[in-house]
Amino acid sequence: MNTVFFQNIRDFFTDLPLLKEFFILALILLGSFLVYLAAKRMGNKIARKFAARTKTRLDDIFIEHKVIEVLAFFIPLLIIKNFLFLLPLIGNTVDVIVNLLLTFLSARTVSTLLMAGNSYYELKPRARRRPIKSYLQIVVIVVYIVAFIIMIGILTRQPPWMLLSGLGAMTAIILLIFRDTILSFVAGIQINMYDLLHVGDWIEMPQFGADGDVIDIALHTIKVQNWDKSITIVPTHKILENSFRNWRGMEEAGGRRIKRSIYIDQNSIKFCDQEMIDRFLKIQLIHDYVKNKLEELERYNREHNIDDSVMVNGRRMTNIGTFRAYAAAYIKSHPKINQRLTKMVRQLPPGPQGLPIEIYAFTNDIRWEVYESIQADIFDHLLAVVPEFELRIFQNPSGKDFAQLTTQIHSRG
Question: Membrane-spanning residues where (predicted)?
Fold first, then answer.
């Protein structure tokens, strides 16, 4: 009975040669797939053992980019190609499909190797200053375009250079399709040529809502991780079309700027009397300043025969000037201030909010949280010592102030 069954199957395939070839093709595909799985598993196992024994990061990067898996795809395709002699009826069609897949896989392999090479290059210190990712992406695009042309040639059975000769008439369409790519490529060249942007730079682009560190510079996009950990994507060519602020200079200078004012109530500004001067002489930071200033003023008034019985005559010390000198001495002696960079305490034009005394200096630590802490400590101290100079901080009246005023009015009434 079994002999009759197998005889019927053989006669069925003998009468249907096309079905027979499809059956053979299915067996070839199944065998090729099994070989692919075995090759991929064995290749990854060998590669991981080899990578574990070496110190270089290149083999680890190849594993991360799945280079072995991409290369393993060649094995089943080559197996199918070598067994096409068993398929006289459908062999040509299968051969075309295999050639298409081999062409695409070749482009994919080149792309994977280039991206793996870029990942290895990014480990180098110079990669931040000279990224090559955008250039490699251009090469990848060209490789895929060439692969596409070859695939069209395979389908039409025309030489690839014949197809290339017909692309001249399509130049306008090609330029339109690849407009952003061309603009981004040119922008990438200018960014590198003029050293405008590095990976790791802190940039601000309010028009795109970007305020943070550059984490990736690619052909078409630049990724910025904002301080709230969100990601802003900026088209590469927009970097040159719009203005942006790069804080790299601050990092290279080793200082982060403090530029903040204390607003002094102008009604509290006055000349210094002897009691104030005696108190100021006890302050270590300004002892020498007060002593030298008194000698300078006394000499000036004596040389110009100033009548010092009237306060407005001649030159005299003021509490605001002495406070400004104290603030300058405090900034100069502060261990967290970068003494190599500009530092000063200056008056700004008075206004409805009082007289601004601006502190302009640079911290010697550019880390954001440390910078904010240093700045807060400086102004905590200066705000606390303002009353020692018989000055008052200007502050708009609050509800509590009006309540106290109302209470006083009622008590007097």
Answer: 22-39, 67-90, 96-114, 135-155, 161-178
Tokens 């200096």 belong to residue: 361
Give the separation between CA 18 and CA 403, rounded to whole angstroms: 101
How close are the terminal C-alpha atoms of the chain, in Å?
A: 127
Alpha helices in 122-237 (DSSP H): 133-156, 160-165, 171-177, 179-193
Q: What pTM did the predictor assign? A: 0.57
CA-nearest of 147, 359, 370 to 260 is: 359
Q: Report the alpha-carbon distance of residue 405 to residue 399 in Å, rounded.
A: 10
Tokens of 125: 């210190």
How, if at all, do strands 245-246 and 221-226 pair?
Answer: unpaired
Q: From CA 213, how far away is CA 234, in angstroms rounded?
A: 12
Note the pLDDT tens digit of each residue in 34-84.
Answer: 988 888 888 888 888 887 787 777 778 888 888 888 888 899 889 888 888
Phi-psi region of 80 (alpha: psi -120 to 50; beta: other; left: phi over 0): alpha
Q: What is the mean pLDDT of residues 101-122?
A: 88
pLDDT one-digit tens code per residue, 166-217:
555 566 666 677 777 778 888 877 777 777 888 888 899 988 889 999 988 8
Task: State the Cα–Cα distance between residues 317 and 276, nearest whole angstrom.
Answer: 10
Position 196: which residue type? Answer: L
Q: What is the pLDDT of residue 1?
A: 47
∠ at Cα 346 (342, 349), nearest 5°?
135
Which domains can be identified in the chain, with CATH numbers? 13-165 (no CATH), 193-248 (2.30.30.60), 249-270+318-413 (3.30.70.100), 274-314 (no CATH)
